[in-house]
Amino acid sequence: MKPTNSIYTGLPTTIFETMSRLAIQHGAINLGQGFPDEDGPLDIRQMAAELLIDGPNQYPPMLGLPALREAVAEANRRFYQLDMDPATNILVTSGATEALSDCLNALIEPGDEVILIEPLYDCYLPLAERAGAHVKSVRLVPPGWKLDRAELEAAFSDKTKAILLNNPHNPAGKVFDRAELELIAELVTKHDAYAICDEVYEHILFDDRTHIPLMTLDGMDQRCLRIGSAGKTFSLTGWKVGYISGPAQLLDPVAKAHQFTTFTTPPALQAAVAFGLAKEDTYYRSLAGELQTKRDHLNAGLAAIGFAMIPCAGTYFLTADIAALCRHKQLPIDDVAFCQAMTEQAGVTAVPVSAFYRPGQQSDIPSQFVRFCFSKQIPVLDEAIARLSKWIKG
Predict the structure, then answer these.
(1) C-alpha angle 77/81/87, rounded to 5°?
(2) What is the pLDDT of residues 305-351, one digit of tens each?
(3) End-to-end CA distance of the chain
(4) pLDDT at site 353
(5) With DSSP H G I counted as helix, E B as strand and the rest as coil, what are the percentages for the chain, rounded to 5?
(6) What secondary structure letter does DSSP report for 92?
(7) Percent of the chain surpassing pLDDT 90
(8) DSSP for 282-342?
(9) What contacts 133, CB < 8 A, 6 or more positions away?
(10) Dist. CA 91–CA 254, nearest whole Å
(11) Cβ–Cβ under 8 Å, residues 244 and 226
């Protein structure tokens, strides 16, 4: 029989699904997959429920409900002083993953080069390759997660069509500083490229940090597509409501890719998200503040029982060095084996950081780091710490 698509055929199940299945099998606390264990604001959910009953429930406009496009444009102005026309600069998608897919399919021709920054969210590589891209990687390595200027410069060429930037960064918990963003902007401009900016954690930064969209730097407003997510901003990951902000000439082909992917997104959810985006600043401060408290709680608990913790500037995730614990448990320094043993023996699940690097590219993929999700209730985090402490001391 003729072969099926070479990108997706044989592609392994995502590490998140693999570890989640293992967690279910062993009754483990799942700190692997990145979602909160509490639903978002009641008033947003109540509005969606009422609109679902009251309707309309037919196709909304392909670009998104005008109310949501206006709300996204206003959020761009409010938080980042970006001037956006709701009619031509905003597109609503069925989640940020669809937004990424639409952007890549709209910008990339077969053979174009796309730069990805490792460690990378698992959909980036297959989506870029399916769009026809030749992928070049730039590697961040824990514990410093440093963006190396020489390596980034070497990755760019006259064939570079786009760089995909995740900021704040999952899984590293890194927030790119202005100097790093200015370097990226310099190279994007020099090589006449575009930037696809995955900024779904834009409101989840800690220790008084402020998010800086690449789009706000000089000249980047015409070269960037900026992706946001109601799932992360309102702890409603199952709703799958995303949005793209960008210049009209870029957003037009992206909208065509969207048109023939999902076409639209449930109108009740769109209207409720529009309502949510207008929330007072106190909401956004409390979102980051509550997650910072959980970050600090889990960080302290893990450090106390022997994990070497790496600073986290944003997102839902903490990275821990397990080398000392592997030696203590007489395990090989192997993050995959450690996560499996921890799930089966301690009843706590994390994700190996090596899974976020391209397989088979180099032999120096980090293998002594694991990622924990802290966007859970404090009693859940406490139980995970207690289980791990018992396991390590046993």
Answers:
(1) 40
(2) 999 999 999 999 999 999 999 998 888 899 999 999 999 999 999 99
(3) 54
(4) 96
(5) 45, 15, 40
(6) E
(7) 92
(8) HHHHHHHHHHHHHHHHHHHHHHHTT-EEE---BSSEEEEE-HHHHHHTT--S-HHHHHHHI
(9) 104, 108, 112, 113, 114, 161
(10) 8
(11) yes
Q: What is the DSSP annotation of 191-250?
A: TT-EEEEE-TTTT-B-TT-----GGGSTTGGGTEEEEEEHHHHTT-GGG--EEEE--HHH
Place of tokens 């990687």: 137
Structure tokens that stand for 372 in this block:
């924990």
Inter-CA distances, 390 with 102, 191, 280, 346, 385, Å: 47, 54, 43, 8, 9
Neighbouring residues of 85: CB distance < 8 A, sequence distance ≥ 6: 73, 248
With a cut of 80, say whether residue 362 has pLDDT above it. Answer: no
Domains within the chain, CATH numbers bracketed: 15-39+282-393 (3.90.1150.10), 42-279 (3.40.640.10)
Give every CB contact of residue 330 below 8 A, 6+ residues apart in sequence: none
Tokens 């994007």 found at: 188
* Contacting residues for 248 by C-beta, under 8 A, at least 6 apart: 85, 88, 89
Cis peptide before 143 (omega within 30 of 0): yes
The amino acid sitting at 32 is: G
pLDDT at 361: 56
Residue 56, preceding peptide bond in cis (omega within 30° of 0): yes
For residue 87, the SS3 value is coil
3 state SS of 265: coil
Record the tokens describing residue 217, joined without a space.
């730097």
**pLDDT at 360 exceeding the cut of 70:** no
Rounded (5°) CA angle 293-355-287: 20
Query: Are 86 and 73 within 8 A, CB to CB?
Result: yes
CB 291 within 8 A of CB 206: yes
- Alpha carbon distances (Å) from 79 to 76, 168, 281: 6, 16, 10
Q: Mean of the per-residue pLDDT values for the chain?
A: 96
